[in-house]
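re: ur question from yesterday

yeah so i grabbed the chain u mentioned. its 107 aa long if i counted rite. heres the sequnce exactly as i have it in my notes:
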Amino acid sequence: IGADTLDLLLMFKNYMNMAELKWLQGDLETAIAYWSEAKQQFTAIYLAGPHILGKGPPHDLKRLFSICKRIVRFLFTLPSETINNNMQIIDAYLHLQVEVEVALKRP
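ran it thru and got these structure tokens back, copy pasting raw so excuse formatting
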């Protein structure tokens, strides 16, 4: 639904919902596939293109930060080699955290 309606945040939530559900069901391969898709799309849209982080209103940044948190939190359930290969998303999380704090202090 998120991809069909071009609602990116809904799409990311759906990917992460499925990743977490499959992980809880013990289907690690499918869980990683959903997580990987969410991470790749997040990276392609918000990190590889024009940097829009920090330029939006605080409520949008907070929603984006919430998705990034879920992606990073799921990453920490994976083997350490996978974590080491995905440090970029952890850096994005830290950067976005700072951007949200700055945005909330803006008049």
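noticed a couple things. Residues 40 and 89 are 10 Å apart (CA to CA). also The first helix runs from residue 8 to 24.
anyway ttyl
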